[in-house]
Amino acid sequence: MLCFAAVAERGSFTAAAAALGYSKAHVSRQVAELERTLGAELLIRTTRRLSLTPLGHRYAEQAARLRGAYDDAEQLIAAERSEVRGRLRITSATTFGEVFLVDLIADFQAAHPQVEVEVDLSILTRDLLDGHYDFAFRITRTMEERLVARAVGLIREIPVAAPALLAERGVPRRPADLAGLPALRNNHFRDDAEWVFVRGGDSETVRLRTPLAVNNFNAIQHAAERGLGIARLPQYHVHDALREGRLQRLLPDWEIAQLPMYLVHPQRRHPTRLQTVFRAFAVAWFDAPERQALLR
User: Is this model's pTM higher than 0.85 or not?
Assistant: First the structure.
């Protein structure tokens, strides 16, 4: 049909072939096949000229409208692929999202103002496919086969305590000394009452007494600042409290095992331009020195 529309518009097989980028023979065969399919003659062919039959005129009018719709659709797809627009759905652990995602999204929308973003912050691990999420920021030791992950940083947890608690109970010198102090446990993690420390080739595991368990980093930090116990918290979360002296880092020569933070998304054969651009933007954003200082 597109070949016939080009012939009807340009008045010859030669001109139509040049416009479509096909050979003249190919265009002629396509028009002849269309006539056989319709069971009607659309063109009058003579050695000197080419003209439309009455039925050919009516069919050419319909074909021109369809060709216009086809061209409009191609232009729409091209515009969508070149302009970043649409809606993103992102899920993240609560405190990581509070610290990082608002700034990430603000910077992304400043560069791409036609983008809308819906964020879910939760301690629950969402199903990305069932929940129709584009991306997740997730700490995990194993990854589902249907998901793709890209590390954007390391979550370094550090042991901290309020200066008043340390003044009263003493400053621990080795991991074993922590067993004599009350500890705050994050009950979102089943093993959070058991802290494993490493230094060089040495490793020490401490089982702690945890009179208070909370499943939220903000609440744990607040309790630690009140002197209710020692806590292990992400470095990015306590950065300001350490700088301002509200908390003090314990055992600076020892490390708690680090866990990678991943940008996760479902496997996609044909990602949208928005998804492709956001993934590249987020990876570069987290690679910035000011973010890596908190995620290494």
Answer: no
